[in-house]
Amino acid sequence: MGKTLADLGVGTRARVVGFDRGSRDYRKKLLAMGLIKGTEFMVHRVAPMGDPIEIEVRGYNLSLRKHEAVTLTVEGVSS
C-alpha cells in the first residue's frame, strides 16, 4: 500500500497515482471532481483532528473527509 492523501501535511505538493480502497461510485465522484491519475495538487489545510483535509486542485479548493482521503494513492512532487 502506498502513501495516501491522508498521510500528507500542509503545504505538501503531490500527484494522484491511483485509488486504493472505496466504492466504484465514490471513485467516479472523485474523477468527476478532477482527481484523475496524474493530477497534481497541494494540501492547503488540515483540520486539528485531521478531518477534513482541504486541497488546492485545478484552480479550486476541495475538502475531503479523512475516510475519503485514504482512497487516493499519491506520490510527492518537487516544488
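(the above was protein one; protein two follows)
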Amino acid sequence: MLNIAIDAMGGDLGPRVAFRACKAYLKNESSVRLILPLEDEYHPLAKKKLARFADRVEIIGCTSHVKMHDSLRTALREHSDSSMMTALQLHKSGDANGVLSIGNTAALLMMSKRVLGTLNGIERPSLATQLPTKDKPLLMMDLGANICVNSEQLLQLAYLAVAWYRAGGVENPALSLLNIGSEPGKGPDTIKAAGELLTHRLEGLYAGFVEGDRLFDGHLDAVICDGYSGNIALKTTEGLIEWLLDMMSAELRHSKALWWFLPFWKATMRRIDRQMSPARHGGAMLLGVSGHVAKTHGKSDERTFRYALEYLVRQVRERDYRELESEYNRLTADFTDEL
C-alpha cells in the first residue's frame, strides 16, 4: 500500500477540487492511501466528501497554508506548520511515499530543498513532465522552477534527465537544448556554452539544439531549457491544444453534414483527448530533490488534479529516487574519471 501526502490547500479553486479528485481516484485505485494535512475548518467537509474511503484516507491538522501571493520569506517564516510543510515532513519521515501539491511553486521548491534535501551535485531541482509527441513521450525540463540558470546548471539538468531515463530502464536517451535555431552559433551565450558542455560530456546522447516547432516530432527523449522558456513553451502548447480541441468540437456542433459521422467523430475525439488534453499532463515532478514530489497547476480542476495524482503514483512505482541519484553520480563520476 502506497501512502501519498496531498497538499490540497493554496490552489486557485480551493481544496474542494482536491477532495473531489481524491474521491474519483480512490474509486479506481485500491492500493493507495491518501494523507491530507488540512486546516481545522476543512476537516468536516473532507470527511464528508471522502467518507466512502475512510479506511484509506487520513486527515491530519495543520495551522495554515501557503498562499499563491506569499513571498518566500513569508512562506518559510510564517508557515512552518502549513499543509505544504506538513506533507513534505510526512515524506521525509517515511510516513508518505510521495507528495502532490497544488500550492505556490517557489515555496514548494524551497521547502522541498529544506526538508528533503537535494540529490548529490544538484544545485537547483527542476520541474519536469512528459509531453505527448508523434512517436513517444518527451521529458521536458525545466518548466518554471528556475527562471535564470547558467550553462553548468543546464548541464546538471541534462545529467538529471539522462539519470531519470536510466533509472527507468532507458540506457541511451536522446536529448537537446531548446534554442531559437538549430545551428551551433545561434542563441544566447549561456545556451551556446551549455551546448559545448553537452557535446563533450554527453557524447552520443546530445543531439544539438532544437527549435520549438520540432518538439513534437518524436525524435527526442528529453529537452532541456531554463524555467522561463520552458514555462512559456508549455503553456503556449496547452493553450493551443485546448483551442484546437474546442474548435473541433465546435465544427461538429455547427456542421449538419458531420452529424452522420457522430459516433466515429466522438470516438476519435476521445482518443485525441486521451493523448493530448492538457488536463492529462498537468502534473510535473520536482526532479533533483531526495524524494518524490509533484506539482499540479494552481488552477487545476478535478480532472487535472486526478491525473496529476495518477502521474505521481506512477513515478513512485516506476522509479526509485535513490536509483536516480546513483545514475546521476555515475554519470558525473564517469566524466571526472576522464579528466
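Reviewer note on protein two: The longest strand covers residues 32-38.
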